[in-house]
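Feature request disguised as a bug report, sorry. It would help if multi-protein outputs had a clear separator. Right now it looks like this:
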Amino acid sequence: MFAKTLFSQKIHRTLRIKTKTPKLPKSAHRCKLRRITMSVSLENLEKFATLLHKVQRVKRFAKRPNEKEFTNTAEHTFEVAMMSWYIASVEGHDLDFEKILKYALAHDLIEAYAGDTPAFDTIGQKDKAKREEAAIARIKSEFTEFPDLLNIINSYENKNDPESKFVYATDKIVDPLNLSMDDNPSFWKDSNISYQTLRNYKDSKIAKDPTITRIWKLLIEKLEVNLKRYFNS
């Protein structure tokens, strides 16, 4: 009986040793880290920085409260990213916050090559889709080493997940929110944009997310208290 017990313990130790996960040598970990940190070339980094610089030079048909200068796409992107994060956090949304921020940061990156097309520019809207498709294709060809960005752009354009719909809707309330905060609002008047035109363009797009729809209704209530203050008609 004693011999049998010793034999059983020996077999158990042998099996435990054989099934133990082998450790990689420290040199292997060092090689892996070295390969990752060496993968970004200065040339590619400069090329990506140039893309970001182009985004900063794109003027948008929008203004911040009490300012005369038009905003640029980079400034707008920052606002969309921070407002998306703020709203999702305060509302306690069960969404992927990393994906939300990536969508927000990349949502207008194509304007580096396609430019900004104002919502009410009927002429510019005619070839907007064509210009944006060309911009996406160009970014894909220039930044093949950054597949995560390309996947995010494609996913945002498709709007098949709640995060992309949330960011898309948030994007649509940023400009009217800013304009409603002006002490002497005249942008919509000067641009001959009526209240109904604004609603026709915004309502269906903002409806993609229920939370942003609720916030949009609050903003509408604010505007409707005194429509003549904001619009000619």
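(second protein starts here, but nothing in the output says so)
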Amino acid sequence: MHLWSRFIVFSSATACLLIAVTNTGWCAASASASGGNSTARTVTPDVPSPIQTGERATELAARFFDPLLADAQTDTVRATLLHQRGVLYLRSDYKQKAITDFNSALQLLPQDHEERLALLFHRACALLLRPKPDARAAIADITVCLRAEPNDPEALIVRANAYRKLGKKEMADADINRAAILAPKSDTAVRALLQNAMGATR
């Protein structure tokens, strides 16, 4: 299991990559303000579909997370909630709001906290998706993730996309080729992302 999907149920690495590559799909969760654990929840009609506007997503973020953030008892709980809200912003048109939440969450966590890798992964996605992508900053974030888990194909795909935006085709191809070797053949979602990324880097 990937490091980030192990700690944040709100959005798995695959869901984030679906946003990054195809801009579709998301999942939802709530966090316990008392314990800080993420808990998966069935998506209801009140949750926006992938094509609904950023304004609706922002309304939901305020509704679900503002009271929880107000009641958070520890920095770790608050960081987890900010992380989850950031993923919701990432799914909307508010990429900079997502980055702001990810930055705030990172400031609350110690350097050795396991959730930092998930935050860096999602911040890299947001940096690539904003109107003026910051590919260099995204590469810095995702490279930290790859140092911790060098054989993760999804992180390699994200970094390849960042290299492509900088015109570094050889480096992008190297990451894509490695991801192609590492991606499980049984994981159709990752394979689909890989195919999209391979097309984008050619």
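Even a blank line would do. Unrelated, but nice: The CA atoms of residues 117 and 144 lie 8 Å apart.
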